[in-house]
Automatic annotation (TrEMBL):
<keyword id="KW-0472">Membrane</keyword>
<keyword id="KW-0677">Repeat</keyword>
<keyword id="KW-0378">Hydrolase</keyword>
<keyword id="KW-0067">ATP-binding</keyword>
<dbReference type="Pfam" id="PF00005">
    <property type="entry name" value="ABC_tran"/>
</dbReference>
<dbReference type="InterPro" id="IPR003439">
    <property type="entry name" value="ABC_transporter-like_ATP-bd"/>
</dbReference>
<dbReference type="InterPro" id="IPR027417">
    <property type="entry name" value="P-loop_NTPase"/>
</dbReference>
<keyword id="KW-0547">Nucleotide-binding</keyword>
<keyword id="KW-1278">Translocase</keyword>
<dbReference type="GO" id="GO:0005524">
    <property type="term" value="F:ATP binding"/>
</dbReference>
<protein>
    <submittedName>
        <fullName>ABC transporter ATP-binding protein</fullName>
        <ecNumber>3.6.3.17</ecNumber>
    </submittedName>
</protein>
<keyword id="KW-1003">Cell membrane</keyword>
<keyword id="KW-0813">Transport</keyword>
<dbReference type="InterPro" id="IPR017871">
    <property type="entry name" value="ABC_transporter-like_CS"/>
</dbReference>
<dbReference type="GO" id="GO:0016887">
    <property type="term" value="F:ATP hydrolysis activity"/>
</dbReference>
<feature type="domain" description="ABC transporter">
    <location>
        <begin position="7"/>
        <end position="242"/>
    </location>
</feature>
<dbReference type="GO" id="GO:0005886">
    <property type="term" value="C:plasma membrane"/>
</dbReference>
Length: 513
Protein backbone atom coordinates (compact mmCIF):
# COMPACT_ATOMS: atom_id res chain seq x y z
CA UNK A 1 0.00 0.00 0.00
CA UNK A 2 1.32 3.44 -0.95
CA UNK A 3 2.33 5.61 2.01
CA UNK A 4 -0.21 8.40 2.59
CA UNK A 5 2.50 10.64 4.07
CA UNK A 6 4.88 12.44 1.73
CA UNK A 7 7.01 13.66 4.66
CA UNK A 8 7.45 12.15 8.12
CA UNK A 9 9.66 13.74 10.76
CA UNK A 10 9.86 11.15 13.52
CA UNK A 11 11.06 11.82 17.09
CA UNK A 12 13.13 14.86 16.07
CA UNK A 13 15.27 16.43 18.78
CA UNK A 14 17.57 19.41 18.23
CA UNK A 15 19.76 20.91 20.94
CA UNK A 16 21.63 24.22 20.89
CA UNK A 17 23.86 25.55 23.71
CA UNK A 18 21.58 26.09 26.70
CA UNK A 19 18.33 25.19 24.91
CA UNK A 20 16.45 22.20 23.51
CA UNK A 21 14.74 23.81 20.50
CA UNK A 22 12.95 20.60 19.46
CA UNK A 23 12.19 17.91 22.03
CA UNK A 24 11.11 14.59 20.48
CA UNK A 25 8.71 16.04 17.89
CA UNK A 26 6.83 13.98 15.30
CA UNK A 27 5.22 15.70 12.30
CA UNK A 28 3.52 13.90 9.40
CA UNK A 29 2.54 15.69 6.17
CA UNK A 30 -0.06 14.04 3.93
CA UNK A 31 0.15 14.30 0.15
CA UNK A 32 -1.78 17.28 -1.20
CA UNK A 33 -2.64 18.79 2.21
CA UNK A 34 -2.01 22.17 3.76
CA UNK A 35 -0.61 21.43 7.21
CA UNK A 36 -0.19 24.35 9.62
CA UNK A 37 2.54 24.44 12.24
CA UNK A 38 1.53 26.64 15.16
CA UNK A 39 3.40 27.76 18.26
CA UNK A 40 4.58 30.74 20.26
CA UNK A 41 7.74 32.66 19.37
CA UNK A 42 10.65 30.38 20.15
CA UNK A 43 8.47 27.23 20.25
CA UNK A 44 10.80 25.53 17.73
CA UNK A 45 8.77 25.81 14.51
CA UNK A 46 11.42 27.43 12.33
CA UNK A 47 14.09 25.11 13.75
CA UNK A 48 12.01 22.06 12.82
CA UNK A 49 11.49 23.34 9.28
CA UNK A 50 15.18 24.28 8.98
CA UNK A 51 15.99 20.64 9.76
CA UNK A 52 13.64 19.50 6.98
CA UNK A 53 15.31 21.97 4.59
CA UNK A 54 18.85 20.85 5.50
CA UNK A 55 19.96 24.03 7.30
CA UNK A 56 20.36 22.14 10.60
CA UNK A 57 21.03 18.51 11.42
CA UNK A 58 18.83 16.88 14.09
CA UNK A 59 20.50 15.74 17.31
CA UNK A 60 18.33 12.61 17.03
CA UNK A 61 15.34 11.36 15.02
CA UNK A 62 14.74 10.46 11.37
CA UNK A 63 13.08 11.97 8.29
CA UNK A 64 11.18 9.91 5.70
CA UNK A 65 9.96 10.94 2.25
CA UNK A 66 7.31 8.69 0.71
CA UNK A 67 8.06 6.09 3.38
CA UNK A 68 11.81 5.96 2.68
CA UNK A 69 14.35 7.31 5.17
CA UNK A 70 16.31 10.26 3.73
CA UNK A 71 19.32 12.27 4.88
CA UNK A 72 19.07 16.01 4.24
CA UNK A 73 22.50 17.49 4.96
CA UNK A 74 22.19 20.70 2.90
CA UNK A 75 19.48 22.78 1.19
CA UNK A 76 20.72 21.28 -2.10
CA UNK A 77 19.74 17.84 -0.77
CA UNK A 78 16.30 19.25 0.06
CA UNK A 79 15.96 20.72 -3.43
CA UNK A 80 16.98 17.36 -4.95
CA UNK A 81 14.08 15.84 -2.96
CA UNK A 82 11.79 18.59 -4.34
CA UNK A 83 11.48 20.32 -0.95
CA UNK A 84 11.40 24.15 -1.13
CA UNK A 85 11.23 26.79 1.57
CA UNK A 86 10.24 30.45 1.82
CA UNK A 87 12.10 31.72 4.88
CA UNK A 88 10.74 34.19 7.41
CA UNK A 89 13.83 36.35 6.85
CA UNK A 90 14.39 36.22 3.14
CA UNK A 91 17.47 34.61 1.61
CA UNK A 92 17.93 37.06 -1.25
CA UNK A 93 21.02 38.76 -2.74
CA UNK A 94 20.24 42.46 -2.42
CA UNK A 95 22.39 43.67 -5.35
CA UNK A 96 20.90 41.08 -7.76
CA UNK A 97 17.71 41.50 -9.79
CA UNK A 98 14.49 39.63 -9.02
CA UNK A 99 15.09 37.29 -11.98
CA UNK A 100 18.70 36.57 -10.99
CA UNK A 101 17.59 35.68 -7.46
CA UNK A 102 14.90 33.31 -8.74
CA UNK A 103 17.29 31.35 -11.00
CA UNK A 104 20.27 31.48 -8.61
CA UNK A 105 21.68 27.98 -8.20
CA UNK A 106 19.76 26.57 -11.18
CA UNK A 107 20.97 28.98 -13.84
CA UNK A 108 20.03 27.96 -17.40
CA UNK A 109 23.08 27.98 -19.69
CA UNK A 110 23.81 27.71 -23.38
CA UNK A 111 27.38 26.52 -23.70
CA UNK A 112 29.36 28.82 -21.42
CA UNK A 113 26.74 31.58 -21.45
CA UNK A 114 23.73 32.33 -19.28
CA UNK A 115 20.47 31.83 -21.18
CA UNK A 116 17.84 33.89 -19.40
CA UNK A 117 15.19 34.21 -22.11
CA UNK A 118 13.32 30.97 -21.30
CA UNK A 119 13.82 31.50 -17.56
CA UNK A 120 12.28 34.97 -17.81
CA UNK A 121 9.32 33.54 -19.77
CA UNK A 122 8.78 30.84 -17.12
CA UNK A 123 9.00 33.39 -14.27
CA UNK A 124 6.51 35.71 -15.97
CA UNK A 125 4.15 32.78 -16.64
CA UNK A 126 4.29 31.66 -12.97
CA UNK A 127 3.97 35.27 -11.84
CA UNK A 128 0.79 35.70 -13.88
CA UNK A 129 -0.66 32.30 -13.03
CA UNK A 130 -0.42 32.88 -9.28
CA UNK A 131 -1.01 36.65 -9.19
CA UNK A 132 2.52 37.35 -7.93
CA UNK A 133 3.20 40.28 -10.23
CA UNK A 134 6.87 41.26 -9.93
CA UNK A 135 9.29 43.29 -12.04
CA UNK A 136 11.98 40.74 -13.01
CA UNK A 137 14.57 43.48 -13.63
CA UNK A 138 14.15 45.39 -10.34
CA UNK A 139 16.98 45.10 -7.82
CA UNK A 140 16.05 43.40 -4.53
CA UNK A 141 17.49 46.40 -2.64
CA UNK A 142 14.95 48.67 -4.36
CA UNK A 143 11.72 46.71 -3.89
CA UNK A 144 9.32 46.51 -0.95
CA UNK A 145 9.33 43.72 1.61
CA UNK A 146 6.07 42.42 0.10
CA UNK A 147 7.71 42.15 -3.33
CA UNK A 148 10.70 40.34 -1.80
CA UNK A 149 8.22 37.85 -0.34
CA UNK A 150 6.76 37.22 -3.79
CA UNK A 151 10.26 36.72 -5.20
CA UNK A 152 10.89 34.00 -2.59
CA UNK A 153 7.63 32.23 -3.49
CA UNK A 154 8.46 32.39 -7.22
CA UNK A 155 11.93 31.00 -6.47
CA UNK A 156 10.26 27.91 -5.01
CA UNK A 157 7.68 27.53 -7.78
CA UNK A 158 10.40 27.95 -10.43
CA UNK A 159 12.15 24.84 -9.07
CA UNK A 160 8.98 22.73 -9.41
CA UNK A 161 9.12 21.76 -5.72
CA UNK A 162 6.40 19.34 -4.51
CA UNK A 163 6.80 19.96 -0.77
CA UNK A 164 6.52 23.68 -0.04
CA UNK A 165 7.48 25.14 3.34
CA UNK A 166 6.10 28.62 4.07
CA UNK A 167 7.71 30.17 7.18
CA UNK A 168 5.46 33.05 8.32
CA UNK A 169 4.58 33.87 4.69
CA UNK A 170 1.97 36.53 5.47
CA UNK A 171 3.92 38.47 8.09
CA UNK A 172 4.81 41.17 5.55
CA UNK A 173 1.78 41.03 3.23
CA UNK A 174 -1.24 43.33 3.01
CA UNK A 175 -4.77 41.98 3.58
CA UNK A 176 -5.36 41.84 -0.18
CA UNK A 177 -2.04 40.04 -0.77
CA UNK A 178 -2.86 37.61 2.04
CA UNK A 179 -6.19 36.72 0.41
CA UNK A 180 -4.32 36.18 -2.85
CA UNK A 181 -1.72 33.97 -1.16
CA UNK A 182 -4.44 31.89 0.50
CA UNK A 183 -5.95 31.26 -2.96
CA UNK A 184 -2.50 30.40 -4.34
CA UNK A 185 -1.91 27.89 -1.53
CA UNK A 186 -5.27 26.23 -2.12
CA UNK A 187 -4.54 26.00 -5.86
CA UNK A 188 -1.10 24.52 -5.20
CA UNK A 189 -2.64 21.89 -2.91
CA UNK A 190 -5.24 21.09 -5.59
CA UNK A 191 -2.39 20.56 -8.05
CA UNK A 192 -0.97 17.95 -5.67
CA UNK A 193 1.64 20.05 -3.87
CA UNK A 194 1.99 19.41 -0.14
CA UNK A 195 2.33 22.52 2.01
CA UNK A 196 3.77 23.08 5.48
CA UNK A 197 2.62 26.46 6.70
CA UNK A 198 4.20 28.11 9.77
CA UNK A 199 2.06 30.94 11.09
CA UNK A 200 0.82 32.71 14.20
CA UNK A 201 -2.36 33.89 12.54
CA UNK A 202 -5.25 31.72 13.63
CA UNK A 203 -7.65 33.17 11.04
CA UNK A 204 -5.37 31.99 8.25
CA UNK A 205 -5.10 28.50 9.72
CA UNK A 206 -8.88 28.26 9.99
CA UNK A 207 -9.21 29.44 6.39
CA UNK A 208 -6.70 27.29 4.50
CA UNK A 209 -5.26 24.47 6.60
CA UNK A 210 -6.52 20.88 6.63
CA UNK A 211 -4.67 19.93 9.82
CA UNK A 212 -2.57 21.75 12.39
CA UNK A 213 0.29 20.59 14.62
CA UNK A 214 0.88 22.66 17.76
CA UNK A 215 4.26 23.07 19.52
CA UNK A 216 4.87 24.70 22.87
CA UNK A 217 8.36 25.42 24.27
CA UNK A 218 9.94 22.89 21.92
CA UNK A 219 7.52 20.06 22.74
CA UNK A 220 4.78 18.44 20.64
CA UNK A 221 1.31 19.29 22.02
CA UNK A 222 -0.93 17.65 19.42
CA UNK A 223 -2.27 17.53 15.85
CA UNK A 224 -5.89 18.49 15.15
CA UNK A 225 -8.24 18.52 12.16
CA UNK A 226 -9.17 22.15 11.44
CA UNK A 227 -12.79 21.20 10.69
CA UNK A 228 -13.11 19.93 14.28
CA UNK A 229 -11.49 22.79 16.23
CA UNK A 230 -11.81 26.55 16.92
CA UNK A 231 -9.52 29.59 17.14
CA UNK A 232 -9.95 29.65 20.92
CA UNK A 233 -8.95 25.99 21.26
CA UNK A 234 -5.88 26.47 19.03
CA UNK A 235 -4.71 29.51 21.02
CA UNK A 236 -5.22 27.64 24.30
CA UNK A 237 -3.10 24.71 23.03
CA UNK A 238 -0.44 27.12 21.77
CA UNK A 239 -0.09 29.45 24.77
CA UNK A 240 -1.40 27.20 27.54
CA UNK A 241 -3.99 29.76 28.67
CA UNK A 242 -7.01 31.66 27.34
CA UNK A 243 -6.08 34.64 25.15
CA UNK A 244 -8.13 37.81 24.63
CA UNK A 245 -8.61 38.68 20.94
CA UNK A 246 -9.85 42.22 21.61
CA UNK A 247 -7.89 45.26 22.79
CA UNK A 248 -9.17 46.75 26.05
CA UNK A 249 -8.79 50.52 26.09
CA UNK A 250 -10.58 53.55 27.43
CA UNK A 251 -11.39 56.52 25.13
CA UNK A 252 -8.31 58.65 24.43
CA UNK A 253 -7.78 62.08 25.99
CA UNK A 254 -5.42 63.89 23.59
CA UNK A 255 -3.27 66.66 25.01
CA UNK A 256 -0.62 68.96 23.50
CA UNK A 257 0.86 68.30 20.07
CA UNK A 258 4.10 66.27 20.23
CA UNK A 259 4.74 65.68 16.52
CA UNK A 260 3.79 68.11 13.77
CA UNK A 261 4.60 67.22 10.17
CA UNK A 262 4.22 70.04 7.63
CA UNK A 263 4.20 69.43 3.84
CA UNK A 264 6.77 66.62 4.11
CA UNK A 265 8.16 65.27 0.83
CA UNK A 266 10.58 62.33 0.50
CA UNK A 267 12.15 61.26 -2.82
CA UNK A 268 11.89 57.66 -4.02
CA UNK A 269 15.00 55.50 -4.39
CA UNK A 270 13.25 53.33 -7.00
CA UNK A 271 11.94 55.88 -9.51
CA UNK A 272 12.17 59.58 -10.32
CA UNK A 273 8.97 60.56 -8.52
CA UNK A 274 8.55 61.39 -4.85
CA UNK A 275 7.61 58.48 -2.55
CA UNK A 276 5.97 60.85 -0.03
CA UNK A 277 4.12 63.89 -1.36
CA UNK A 278 3.25 66.95 0.70
CA UNK A 279 2.14 65.12 3.85
CA UNK A 280 0.87 67.13 6.84
CA UNK A 281 -0.61 65.91 10.15
CA UNK A 282 0.09 65.88 13.88
CA UNK A 283 0.15 63.45 16.80
CA UNK A 284 -0.79 64.58 20.30
CA UNK A 285 -0.04 63.33 23.78
CA UNK A 286 -2.35 60.54 24.88
CA UNK A 287 -3.40 59.26 21.45
CA UNK A 288 -2.48 56.48 19.02
CA UNK A 289 -2.53 57.68 15.42
CA UNK A 290 -2.24 54.94 12.84
CA UNK A 291 -0.98 55.33 9.28
CA UNK A 292 -2.68 52.56 7.32
CA UNK A 293 -2.07 51.62 3.71
CA UNK A 294 -1.13 48.84 1.35
CA UNK A 295 2.59 48.07 1.39
CA UNK A 296 4.62 50.19 -1.02
CA UNK A 297 2.53 53.37 -0.82
CA UNK A 298 5.22 55.50 0.80
CA UNK A 299 4.88 54.46 4.45
CA UNK A 300 8.46 53.09 4.62
CA UNK A 301 9.97 56.23 3.09
CA UNK A 302 7.82 58.42 5.33
CA UNK A 303 9.07 56.65 8.48
CA UNK A 304 12.68 56.82 7.26
CA UNK A 305 12.32 60.58 6.70
CA UNK A 306 10.64 61.06 10.08
CA UNK A 307 13.28 59.11 12.03
CA UNK A 308 16.31 60.49 10.15
CA UNK A 309 17.23 57.37 8.18
CA UNK A 310 16.59 59.31 4.94
CA UNK A 311 16.80 63.01 4.09
CA UNK A 312 13.52 64.78 3.32
CA UNK A 313 13.46 66.97 0.21
CA UNK A 314 10.71 69.30 1.40
CA UNK A 315 8.63 70.29 4.40
CA UNK A 316 9.27 70.47 8.15
CA UNK A 317 9.16 68.10 11.12
CA UNK A 318 8.45 69.72 14.50
CA UNK A 319 8.98 67.70 17.68
CA UNK A 320 7.69 69.29 20.89
CA UNK A 321 7.77 72.60 19.00
CA UNK A 322 11.40 72.21 17.89
CA UNK A 323 12.41 71.86 14.21
CA UNK A 324 14.17 68.48 13.85
CA UNK A 325 13.99 68.23 10.03
CA UNK A 326 17.80 68.06 9.76
CA UNK A 327 18.58 66.54 13.18
CA UNK A 328 20.67 63.36 13.40
CA UNK A 329 19.17 60.01 14.40
CA UNK A 330 20.94 60.19 17.78
CA UNK A 331 19.65 63.71 18.44
CA UNK A 332 16.08 62.62 17.67
CA UNK A 333 16.53 59.68 20.02
CA UNK A 334 17.97 61.91 22.79
CA UNK A 335 15.04 64.34 22.40
CA UNK A 336 12.57 61.54 23.11
CA UNK A 337 11.75 59.73 19.86
CA UNK A 338 11.71 55.92 19.87
CA UNK A 339 11.47 53.84 16.69
CA UNK A 340 10.40 50.21 16.31
CA UNK A 341 11.57 49.71 12.70
CA UNK A 342 9.87 47.80 9.90
CA UNK A 343 12.98 45.73 9.12
CA UNK A 344 14.32 44.44 12.43
CA UNK A 345 17.48 43.00 10.85
CA UNK A 346 18.49 46.04 8.81
CA UNK A 347 17.52 48.87 11.17
CA UNK A 348 16.65 47.30 14.53
CA UNK A 349 19.50 45.06 15.65
CA UNK A 350 23.18 44.27 15.23
CA UNK A 351 22.67 40.55 14.72
CA UNK A 352 26.16 39.47 15.80
CA UNK A 353 25.94 41.42 19.07
CA UNK A 354 24.50 39.88 22.22
CA UNK A 355 21.04 40.84 23.50
CA UNK A 356 22.58 42.98 26.27
CA UNK A 357 24.67 44.92 23.74
CA UNK A 358 21.60 45.47 21.55
CA UNK A 359 19.54 46.65 24.53
CA UNK A 360 21.91 49.61 25.15
CA UNK A 361 22.71 50.45 21.51
CA UNK A 362 21.20 53.92 21.84
CA UNK A 363 22.14 54.51 25.49
CA UNK A 364 25.60 53.00 26.10
CA UNK A 365 27.13 56.49 26.40
CA UNK A 366 24.83 57.56 29.24
CA UNK A 367 26.33 57.77 32.77
CA UNK A 368 24.15 54.84 33.84
CA UNK A 369 26.12 52.53 31.49
CA UNK A 370 29.46 54.28 30.91
CA UNK A 371 32.22 55.78 33.05
CA UNK A 372 35.38 57.52 31.70
CA UNK A 373 34.95 55.87 28.28
CA UNK A 374 34.41 52.36 29.67
CA UNK A 375 31.15 50.40 29.55
CA UNK A 376 29.80 49.35 32.96
CA UNK A 377 29.28 45.66 32.10
CA UNK A 378 27.46 44.82 35.34
CA UNK A 379 24.94 47.67 34.86
CA UNK A 380 24.35 46.67 31.23
CA UNK A 381 23.76 43.04 32.21
CA UNK A 382 21.34 43.91 35.03
CA UNK A 383 19.45 46.25 32.71
CA UNK A 384 19.20 43.57 29.98
CA UNK A 385 18.09 40.92 32.49
CA UNK A 386 15.29 43.21 33.70
CA UNK A 387 14.00 43.83 30.17
CA UNK A 388 14.30 40.15 29.18
CA UNK A 389 12.16 39.17 32.16
CA UNK A 390 9.67 42.03 31.83
CA UNK A 391 9.05 41.45 28.10
CA UNK A 392 9.43 37.64 28.14
CA UNK A 393 12.30 37.63 25.60
CA UNK A 394 13.21 33.94 25.25
CA UNK A 395 16.76 32.92 24.41
CA UNK A 396 19.19 30.08 25.09
CA UNK A 397 21.76 31.96 27.18
CA UNK A 398 19.95 35.00 28.52
CA UNK A 399 21.64 38.41 28.05
CA UNK A 400 24.77 36.94 26.41
CA UNK A 401 22.80 35.17 23.66
CA UNK A 402 23.89 36.26 20.17
CA UNK A 403 20.83 37.96 18.71
CA UNK A 404 21.12 36.19 15.34
CA UNK A 405 20.41 32.83 17.01
CA UNK A 406 17.03 33.95 18.44
CA UNK A 407 13.64 33.42 16.83
CA UNK A 408 12.27 36.36 14.82
CA UNK A 409 9.50 36.99 17.32
CA UNK A 410 11.93 37.20 20.24
CA UNK A 411 14.19 39.54 18.28
CA UNK A 412 11.11 41.75 17.81
CA UNK A 413 10.30 41.63 21.53
CA UNK A 414 13.87 42.71 22.34
CA UNK A 415 13.53 45.80 20.11
CA UNK A 416 10.14 46.69 21.59
CA UNK A 417 11.52 46.34 25.13
CA UNK A 418 14.46 48.64 24.33
CA UNK A 419 12.37 51.31 22.58
CA UNK A 420 9.54 51.48 25.13
CA UNK A 421 11.92 51.44 28.10
CA UNK A 422 13.55 54.65 26.84
CA UNK A 423 10.34 56.35 28.08
CA UNK A 424 9.93 58.34 24.86
CA UNK A 425 7.60 61.30 24.21
CA UNK A 426 6.87 59.80 20.78
CA UNK A 427 6.88 56.09 19.98
CA UNK A 428 7.00 55.35 16.23
CA UNK A 429 5.92 51.72 15.94
CA UNK A 430 6.16 50.21 12.44
CA UNK A 431 4.58 46.77 12.11
CA UNK A 432 5.30 46.16 15.84
CA UNK A 433 3.58 42.75 15.98
CA UNK A 434 5.02 41.37 12.74
CA UNK A 435 5.81 37.71 13.27
CA UNK A 436 4.51 37.60 16.84
CA UNK A 437 2.14 34.99 18.29
CA UNK A 438 -1.29 35.82 19.74
CA UNK A 439 -0.01 35.93 23.33
CA UNK A 440 2.81 38.35 22.41
CA UNK A 441 0.48 40.48 20.22
CA UNK A 442 -1.93 40.81 23.14
CA UNK A 443 0.99 41.99 25.31
CA UNK A 444 2.42 44.46 22.75
CA UNK A 445 -0.99 46.01 22.09
CA UNK A 446 -1.46 46.48 25.83
CA UNK A 447 2.00 48.16 25.97
CA UNK A 448 1.08 50.59 23.18
CA UNK A 449 -2.16 51.48 24.97
CA UNK A 450 -0.25 51.84 28.27
CA UNK A 451 2.13 54.32 26.59
CA UNK A 452 -0.87 56.29 25.35
CA UNK A 453 -2.48 56.26 28.80
CA UNK A 454 0.77 57.60 30.31
CA UNK A 455 0.34 60.65 28.09
CA UNK A 456 2.80 59.60 25.39
CA UNK A 457 2.19 60.12 21.66
CA UNK A 458 2.13 56.90 19.61
CA UNK A 459 2.43 56.78 15.81
CA UNK A 460 1.56 53.29 14.60
CA UNK A 461 2.26 52.22 11.01
CA UNK A 462 0.54 48.94 10.23
CA UNK A 463 -0.64 46.74 7.38
CA UNK A 464 -2.74 44.57 9.72
CA UNK A 465 -6.38 45.65 9.42
CA UNK A 466 -7.34 44.12 12.78
CA UNK A 467 -4.50 46.00 14.46
CA UNK A 468 -5.41 49.27 12.72
CA UNK A 469 -9.06 48.99 13.80
CA UNK A 470 -8.46 47.73 17.36
CA UNK A 471 -5.49 49.78 18.57
CA UNK A 472 -5.73 53.23 16.95
CA UNK A 473 -7.68 56.28 18.08
CA UNK A 474 -7.37 57.93 14.68
CA UNK A 475 -6.57 56.41 11.26
CA UNK A 476 -4.76 58.24 8.47
CA UNK A 477 -4.72 56.37 5.15
CA UNK A 478 -1.70 56.72 2.86
CA UNK A 479 -2.07 55.96 -0.84
CA UNK A 480 0.67 56.58 -3.41
CA UNK A 481 2.56 58.78 -0.95
CA UNK A 482 -0.39 61.02 -0.05
CA UNK A 483 -2.80 61.10 2.89
CA UNK A 484 -6.19 60.34 1.32
CA UNK A 485 -8.42 60.05 4.39
CA UNK A 486 -8.74 60.57 8.14
CA UNK A 487 -11.05 57.96 9.68
CA UNK A 488 -12.48 57.14 13.09
CA UNK A 489 -11.97 53.44 13.92
CA UNK A 490 -15.17 53.48 16.01
CA UNK A 491 -17.34 54.41 13.02
CA UNK A 492 -15.53 53.23 9.86
CA UNK A 493 -16.04 49.71 8.49
CA UNK A 494 -13.22 47.42 7.34
CA UNK A 495 -14.72 47.52 3.81
CA UNK A 496 -14.66 51.34 3.72
CA UNK A 497 -11.11 51.41 5.07
CA UNK A 498 -10.15 48.97 2.29
CA UNK A 499 -11.59 51.36 -0.34
CA UNK A 500 -9.42 54.22 0.94
CA UNK A 501 -6.35 51.94 1.03
CA UNK A 502 -6.96 50.89 -2.58
CA UNK A 503 -7.31 54.53 -3.70
CA UNK A 504 -10.98 54.08 -4.70
CA UNK A 505 -12.12 56.67 -2.18
CA UNK A 506 -10.43 59.83 -0.87
CA UNK A 507 -11.18 62.88 1.26
CA UNK A 508 -8.76 65.75 1.73
CA UNK A 509 -7.15 65.49 5.17
CA UNK A 510 -7.36 68.82 7.04
CA UNK A 511 -3.91 70.17 7.80
CA UNK A 512 -4.60 70.62 11.49
CA UNK A 513 -5.35 66.96 12.22
Amino acid sequence: MENEYIIEMLNITKEFPGIKANDNITLQLKKGEIHALLGENGAGKSTLMSILFGLYQPTSGIIKKNGQEVHINTPNDANDLNIGMVHQHFKLVECFSVLDNIILGVEPTKGLFLEKKNARAKVMELSEKYGLMVDPDALISDITVGMQQRTEILKMLYRDNEVLIFDEPTAVLTPQEIDELMKIMKNLAKEGKSILFITHKLNEIMEVADRCTILRKGKYIGTVNISETSKEELSRMMVGRNVSFSVNKKPSKPGDTVLKVEHMTVPSKVHGNNAVKDVSFNVRKGEIVCIAGIDGNGQSEFVQGLTGLEKVSGGKILFNGQDITKASIRDRSKMGMSHIPEDRHKHGLVLDYSIEQNMVLQRYWQPEFESFGFIKSKAVREYAERLIEQYDVRSGQGPVTITRSMSGGNQQKAIIAREIDKDPDLLVAVQPTRGLDVGAIEYIHSQLVAQRDKGKAVLLVSLELDEVMDVSDRILVMYEGELVGQLDPKTVSVEELGLYMAGAKRDPVPEEV
